[in-house]
Amino acid sequence: MNIRMTIMGALAVLAGSVGLYPLFSSGPWFWSGLGAVLSVVAGGLLVRRFRAPAVLSALGGLAVLHLYLTVRFTAGQAWLGLVPTPSSLRRLGELFGEGWDAANQYAAPVPLVPGIALLATAGIGLVAVAVDLLAARLRRVAPAGLPLLAMYSVPAAVREESINWAAFGIGALGYLALLVADSREHVVGWGRVVLTRRWTEDVPMAGAAGSGAGKGLGRGERPDSSALAASGRRIGVAAVAIAVLLPTAVPGIHPRGLFGLGSGGGRGGGTQTVTTPDPLVSLKRELTRQDDSVVLTYRTDDEQPDYLRLYALDRFDGDRWTYSALESTSKDRVTDRPLPRPPGLSEAATREVRTTVRVQRKVRNMTFLPVPYAPSRLSVEGDWRVDAASLMIYSLRDSASGRSYEVTSVRAEPTAKVLAGGSTYPSDVVSHYTRVPKSIPQQIRELAQEVTEGATTAHEQAVRLQRWFTSEGGFQYDLNAPPPQHGNDLVDFLQRSKRGYCEQYAAAMALLARILGIPARVAMGYTAGTKTAPGQWVVRSRDAHAWPELYFPGTGWVRFEPTPVGAAGQGTASTPAYTDAASLGDGSAPAEPEAPSPEDSPTAAQSNGPQQPERRQPQDQGPVDAPAKEEEGGVPAGWLAAGLLVAMLLAAPVTVRVLARRRRWAAVVPREDRTGPGLGLGAGRSDGGPLPLDPVDAAHAAWREMRADALDHGLSLRAADTPRATARHLGELLELDAESAGALRRIAHAEELARYSRSRAQTPAESLRADLKTVRDAFAAAVNRRARLRARYLPPSSMAAFRSAALEAATRLNRVTGRLNGLTDRLSARIRDRRR
């Protein structure tokens, strides 16, 4: 029975479980998981106490885990609150089902309802059973990393954001500690150990009890495994460092930069790519929050406020709607100056709306501001910026949490006549906002034509699409429907299930509009909310909403509402007046618009009806709609950052070498500082000039620089040689000329005097610097071109400094793990003493 491996396995599981933190909205899940791990450890130790087979060891852990889950979650149905009964088993099954449904209903972080807590606790416990079986019972520690990796992969798979590097590092250190403990066990099992007193720490031997391999070891003595330990430390530290640092150099993996420090959006210039997690990921979580908490409140002079928009999603890859990467510069900042004009708004009537918004402090990670479309002026504290194409307001480093801001918006009030008329679509709008992936099935394309058959204008087509979703198509609003993850989910929503919530409705209508050639995108934000007093409104979590925006010449982007409103749908959603089917025949828009002359409308002969704006056919695209910057042939910012990082890494050895040289000479102090005022040979100069540098320090600096130069050029030096022997060895090895050999002898002689006769060391620092340059040039002339290039761009002396720093860090890490191992040794010894 190996107590140490059992304890280290449990610690590795707990360290790995730290990576689950992004999945839950509160922290008690960890303590519940801790109880599960301790239960598995107790069960494993109990079964191994009777030397049972490995299979029974795993079954013992599972049995005790079951008892723990019974006490933790179904004590009311168990006998004496402990022994499982049929009722407790049924209740556990019900909780598992509830947890599974809740996990599919909520987006991370999920509320810690009993079912989800049970799933988390049981999952951590099962990982503990697997690790305990592999590491402590079968002594297969390397495969024990697979269940740990599986546990870490859960948040990595369900979240759009990366797991925090610190959480990964804790899990990695737990696994490395498990490997170290296993290695110690194997070393002790080799037989009689060779002792050394190099280690003076009071750390008990790993084999001081048990097999007897460590009997007779004194305090402070350990096996002489320093070479193996050093190699293991270097490999472990290098592996963790590469795993943490390498992904930061790959564009797209860490959009916020190294360790999350790149999101600052500093005050300087330059372009930064704005990336956030998928905005639709949090939509269902907001709609299904049980507390329906207040998100924001606002005051407005608008009698019937419009929606508050956060995002405009313009890219559809066949599965999901996202927005194009925003290339942010300092010119995009909003500092009480007019914002860009709303795209396309030139003919429709408008009015100005003023809104004062206050976001609640408990709102987290809101880096986009909810504002009524289209914002024209914004007053807000912090570094906030605007995207000219979409008028989204965002920040690279600030959050809207707890902020108050005032926004002035231009609200368009188009009539059906304005929307039905208008000029032709701009070519850039058509090319970008009518793209449809080739993967869209033909039956969906035919469906768009079938629903809008007979419509003569783009406005009429849009109204018929909206009416089909809200009343004629047989759709039903259902928050329990899973969010669409693939293109076939959208097909299923349109043709078979017809059940969903605002995300499906908005995404489907925008897609059908694009198929018809109408520029479309998906907007996301909040409805107007609930009126609490004249001019005052409150917006809650369940007011989160998604809707389509369609582009019309002369009006720009116009909101439509395909989601059912009221009690049968999104409770606070509203249908715009210009989308009412009755408006197609009222006095504001003739049912049969006049046909333009061929001169006025060059596309009249090709259109389905009069005054139809020119709309190109939707462009089929590949799976991903690349950002405009990449289409223009620009270099992505991520690759530029990666190239800069690579250049910095390549320049690091040279930089370290230059800094080391300067540091050595900077350490040479004036002679007065060494001997005290009035005591040095150069003290009290009457001419007021600088004091000469101390020749002892100068000799040491020149000697160390000479040895570093020799190492950089690949010349071998014997550490036991005196300075004179080293100079003679280099002179014979390189066959130096008289001048170079003399410079080398003078440097060696100065070092000998500085070591053994400090009072006679009088060689000036300037002379030693000149001799050092002569020797360096001689080294370069005596070696081949490859050695010269290596000495210049990849000096081995710098690499030795790197290795020394890494070894020092690994040594400190080894001391920490040594203390941890000592703690487990003492705990094992106490347990054995009590058993005796």
From TrEMBL:
<feature type="region of interest" description="Disordered">
    <location>
        <begin position="329"/>
        <end position="350"/>
    </location>
</feature>
<dbReference type="Pfam" id="PF11992">
    <property type="entry name" value="TgpA_N"/>
</dbReference>
<dbReference type="InterPro" id="IPR021878">
    <property type="entry name" value="TgpA_N"/>
</dbReference>
<keyword id="KW-1133">Transmembrane helix</keyword>
<feature type="region of interest" description="Disordered">
    <location>
        <begin position="567"/>
        <end position="632"/>
    </location>
</feature>
<keyword id="KW-0472">Membrane</keyword>
<feature type="transmembrane region" description="Helical">
    <location>
        <begin position="29"/>
        <end position="47"/>
    </location>
</feature>
<dbReference type="InterPro" id="IPR052901">
    <property type="entry name" value="Bact_TGase-like"/>
</dbReference>
<dbReference type="InterPro" id="IPR002931">
    <property type="entry name" value="Transglutaminase-like"/>
</dbReference>
<feature type="domain" description="Transglutaminase-like">
    <location>
        <begin position="494"/>
        <end position="564"/>
    </location>
</feature>
<feature type="transmembrane region" description="Helical">
    <location>
        <begin position="54"/>
        <end position="75"/>
    </location>
</feature>
<dbReference type="InterPro" id="IPR038765">
    <property type="entry name" value="Papain-like_cys_pep_sf"/>
</dbReference>
<feature type="transmembrane region" description="Helical">
    <location>
        <begin position="637"/>
        <end position="656"/>
    </location>
</feature>
<feature type="transmembrane region" description="Helical">
    <location>
        <begin position="112"/>
        <end position="134"/>
    </location>
</feature>
<feature type="transmembrane region" description="Helical">
    <location>
        <begin position="235"/>
        <end position="253"/>
    </location>
</feature>
<feature type="compositionally biased region" description="Low complexity">
    <location>
        <begin position="588"/>
        <end position="612"/>
    </location>
</feature>
<protein>
    <submittedName>
        <fullName>DUF3488 and transglutaminase-like domain-containing protein</fullName>
    </submittedName>
</protein>
<keyword id="KW-0812">Transmembrane</keyword>
<dbReference type="Pfam" id="PF01841">
    <property type="entry name" value="Transglut_core"/>
</dbReference>
<feature type="compositionally biased region" description="Basic and acidic residues">
    <location>
        <begin position="329"/>
        <end position="339"/>
    </location>
</feature>
